[in-house]
Amino acid sequence: MKIGIFSGSFNPIHVGHLILANYITEFTEIDEIWFLVTPQNPLKENAELINEDLRLEMTRLALESYPQFKCSDFEFKLPRPSYTVNTLDALNEKYPEHQFSLIIGADNWDTFHQWKDYKLILDKYHIYVYPRLDAKLTIAKGLRSSVEALESPIIEISSTFIRDSIAEGKNMKAFLSESVYNYIEEKNLYR
What we know:
Keywords: ATP-binding, NAD, Nucleotide-binding, Nucleotidyltransferase, Pyridine nucleotide biosynthesis, Transferase
Family: Belongs to the NadD family.
Distance between the termini: 41 Å
CATH class: Alpha Beta
Pathway: Cofactor biosynthesis; NAD(+) biosynthesis; deamido-NAD(+) from nicotinate D-ribonucleotide: step 1/1
CATH architecture: 3-Layer(aba) Sandwich
EC number: 2.7.7.18
Helix content: 25-40%
Largest sheet: 6 strands, parallel
Radius of gyration: 16 Å
Strand content: 15-25%
Strand order of the largest sheet: 3-2-1-4-5-6
Shape: globular
Number of strands: 6
Protein name: Probable nicotinate-nucleotide adenylyltransferase
């Protein structure tokens, strides 16, 4: 099976993530998308990062009605910080029956050369890059067999915007799946 790895903090997961994942399963060769909740991105500060188990539960709730999406805590069991190359190799070792690809945004593609062992990722895995509003997406000719620019809709909803808005007392129900919205309310998160 062809599995797309969509890794992120999902702090919180929102409808933009779901729209993008839906596009990828419908318009590429990807059969399933595994949402890997990341304990800590090595290139990001974690000051606003809530507990990983809360983020995992929100992700699980958001994906309940999508059989082609899976929620995963795979990186929770790996050494930290979580480096994508190590995660992909560990997935490949544990699930040799699957073919794994990486899904990243154009903003991440801009800094991809800073990732640990990025050349190994390019050599071993297919990468799908989705557009972002403020990122110009350029893929060198020599990489186009392993890196694919998606023509997916540009969804400019950010988890930061949602967190900040909730902290200001705004109703963000339309930006989140109902179960995630209810979970945030119940647990009084981001206030």
